[in-house]
Amino acid sequence: MARFLIKRIFSAVLTLLAVSVLTFLMFFALPRDPVTGMCPKNCNPERLERVRQELGLSDPLITQYAGYMKGIFTGRDLGSAQGGQCDAPCLGWSYVNNEAVLDTIARVLPVTLSIVIPAAILWLLLGVGLGMVSALRRGTWLDRAAIGFSLTGASLQLYFVGAVLLLVLVYNLRLLPVPSYTSIFDDPVKWASGLVLAWLALAFLFSAIYARLSRAQMLETLSEDFVRTARAKGLPKPQVYGRHALRAAITPVVTIAGLDVGAALGGTVITETTFGIQGLGRTAVEAVRAGDLPTIMATVLIAAVFVVVANVLVDLLYAAIDPRVRLG
Amino acid sequence: MGVPPYLQVRDLRVRFETEDGVVRAVDGVSFAVERGRTLGIVGESGSGKSVTSLAILGLHNARRTTISGEILVAGRDVVGLPEEEVRRLRGRDMAMVFQDPLSALHPYYTVGRQIAEAYRIHHPKAGRREARQRAVDMLGRVGIPQPAKRADQYPHEFSGGMRQRAMIAMALVNDPELLIADEPTTALDVTVQAQILDLLEDLQAEFNSAIILITHDLGVVSQVADEVLVMYGGRAVEHGSAAQVLRRPQHPYTWGLLSSVPSLHGDADADLIPITGSPPSLINLPSGCAFHPRCRYADRNGDRSRTEVPELRPASEPGHLVACHLPAQERARIYTEEIAHVGVAR
Fold it and tell me: Which ipTM score applies to this complex?
């Protein structure tokens, strides 16, 4: 088990390194000069050249990359124009936002976490529950209703669902305030009421997919020989379904859930945009639009960290659920 | 006649509703098994032998299956009994061993835990430790070395033969009076097959249980069965003691089964006679005798085989039943002249 874990973590670190190199290269391969985007008004050639010097953009790529990585692990001095000494983990200085990138991230990351984590809990409970119930009640009106629900959810888009929810719950019925972010530590009630629409919209779309997936998995598992064995032993239905069928059916759902949550934590661009909440996703899109290299690097790296960590966690969970994986 | 047989099946009919039509998987089958005795049910896939065993345990999906007839377990009819009451019988009074132990055991739980679970469900007062001890004992009794260590392993860490032993240990953990073994050796090597059959016989001597052994392999049947029921297309075509059915078979289908199995003692050049064609569709069974399209002797009695379903009737010896339109003397003649020297029929 320990060897398995070490191997997985080692390959995760390699993946992250590769992502950082690729992002770096991709950005410099863009046809646009990063400096023009970073220089505010009154740009003349000297000023542009100065910015270029400060950013180290005239250095060879490899030096720049080394400097960036050094900043993350040990911190570095960015020069007076960029806020001076930048402690580890230093993600650089954004000319566009005029602040250290780490400060931007520290502001927007909790927003995305606040959207994704409760939504994920909701969609997993709802989706898996619905899928299981409809598999066990196959062919009944309940099953048909669940299939209808998941077809609807799977064919709708978030900006549409979000807009309808906004229109009905906020503007017509006035049941909820206009979506906004408040820290959970300042006011938990306001935190929840400001984000509940985003949770509902995300949960609706994702739970539809999970309902379908877990229904299919459960149906497949119910036809397995070991489920028949469990019944032949004389186990009552709740134990046959819960202990024997569910555990086998849930495994692929866990895998996909881990990857989905990991990807969502990297930024829920459409959700954030639909509800006008500034999270990691919107920050990343705005950074790309402004050609804000340090912010782009940071958001991409953080998204990659989430995906990679989610992958490792999924592997560990899988090994915990399925003893056959542990040997491999 | 003293005690009635532990299991009595009378005129059992099992039907499934499917989109393509009604499948008559079992169509009027009767038999009985006493404690300490073994009934072999033989037939090709789709002959209704597994469906019969699942019906006895009440494992069919109630919504899509219609079962009629009587299944008397210790004198009590389980057909139409509420699911909860059948459940209490399952695993305690009647247990089942399945064909492929790898897929029949749960891959995520240790073997010991699965056996202990089967014990605890019918012994609610038994503690965790007692159930585990019972599981380890059972593993030892079915001949698994180091049972305490093996109990903590998963099915994938067992070999095929050991897995089937574990499966048998699980089925016998509550001392059931009826054990149904559905193709218990089909997924195993030939050498392991013999061990498993020996084990079943030993355990039967020890527990005095009634055993139904379902198989398509006549070699297996000849080793352990006291009585044999041959099924074709959901019906019984021949029924009698093992000696009668295997040594003096009366039905052309049984002849086909016997003469298509090579014999170790036979001369290698003796031709085997395979049964031509394939098993019939249970939705659209051939008219008359269901076996007639594949029977080499069907045209010997005019149109009767095509038009009239043969009844299961006493053959020449008492207790030997056969469902065939051929006259008894004709059958005896064909058997001695054409069949008796081929394959295991020798």
Answer: 0.89
